[in-house]
Amino acid sequence: MPAYDYKCDKCGETFSLIMSISEKETKKVKCPKCKSVKVKPVYSGFFAVTSKKS
Questions:
Q1: pTM for the model
Q2: Which residues contact residue 44 at a Cβ distance below 8 angstroms, ignoring those fewer than 6 apart?
Q3: Of 6, 9, 24, 32, whose CB neighbour count within 10 A is largest?
Q4: Is the pLDDT at 26 greater than 80, yes or no?
Q5: What band does 34 get if pLDDT is binned at 50, 70 and 90?
Q6: Burial 27-42 (b: 16+ CB within 10 A, else e)
Q7: In 1-54, beta strands by DSSP E
Q8: Distance (Å, rounded) from C-alpha 15 to C-alpha 28?
Q9: Domains in the chain, ordered, with CATH?
Q10: Contact present, 40 and 5 (Cβ < 8 Å)
Q11: Are strands 39-42 and 3-8 parallel, antiparallel or unpaired?
């Protein structure tokens, strides 16, 4: 399952949540520090491990 990064608009806390893609679409994300629902996704890079050599 992918990990999603969020930042709280209220307290500034940055946190990660591991959830399925379907959960991401339906789940209300809350800040673990202040319990606010005013959070925004933080976009970052990712990498993939494959068996092919490039």
A1: 0.74
A2: 5
A3: 6
A4: yes
A5: very high
A6: eebbbeeeeeeebeee
A7: 3-8, 14-18, 39-42
A8: 14
A9: 3-42 (2.20.28)
A10: no
A11: antiparallel
* pLDDT (average), residues 7-18: 96
DSSP state of 32: T
What single DSSP character describes residue 28? P
Checking if the pLDDT of 52 tops 80, the result is no
Do the Cβ atoms of 18 and 2 come closer than 8 Å? Answer: yes
40: left (phi over 0), alpha (psi -120 to 50) or beta: beta
Residue 22 CA, chain-centre distance (Å), reads: 13
Query: Do 34 and 6 form a contact (C-beta atoms < 8 A)?
Result: no
